[in-house]
Amino acid sequence: MKLTEPLNYNGRLYEKGEIVTGHLPMELIAELHKNGKIEGGEPFEAAGLTREELTTDDFDKLSADEQKVLLESLGLVAATNKEGRSEQYTAWLTPAGDSDEL
């Protein structure tokens, strides 16, 4: 994912068009994506993560705020309780058509 305009963050100037994958915190990436200041890919990918790298166990270890930011960066409205957020993340991890349910 790359910036659609320059960004001054933490004492560093990121140029327009610069790829920021893995260089910015999730909260900032989610906010930039929400405001159209990053183009390409999912905000989750911009943080340098893939579906395979953050397991449900890893997700459950995140703080409530971290879980909410992550879910919102995936385009979801985060549930108010931990169990609901865990279910949302598990559902996101499961590609469509891979469910065992009939």
Task: Give a short summary of the structure.
By secondary structure, this protein is mostly helical. Helix content is 40%, strand content 10%.
Order of helices and strands: EEEHEHHHH
What characterizes the major β-sheet? Answer: 2 strands, antiparallel
Shape: elongated
Overall strand count: 4
**Which spans have pLDDT < 50 for at least 5 consecutive residues?**
none
Provide an overview of this structure.
There is one protein chain. By secondary structure, the chain is mainly alpha-helical. The chain has helices spanning 26-34, 43-46, 56-61, 64-73, 82-93; strands spanning 2-3, 7-9, 12-14, 38-39. Strands 1-4 form a two-stranded antiparallel ribbon. The termini are far apart. The model has no long low-confidence stretch (mean pLDDT 78).
Which features would summarize this protein structure in a list?
mainly alpha, 102 residues, two-stranded antiparallel sheet, two-stranded antiparallel ribbon, 4 strands, 5 helices, single chain
Strand and helix map with partners:
Layout lengths: L1 E2 L3 E3 L2 E3 L11 H9 L3 E2 L3 H4 L9 H6 L2 H10 L8 H12 L9
Antiparallel strand pairs: 1-4, 2-3
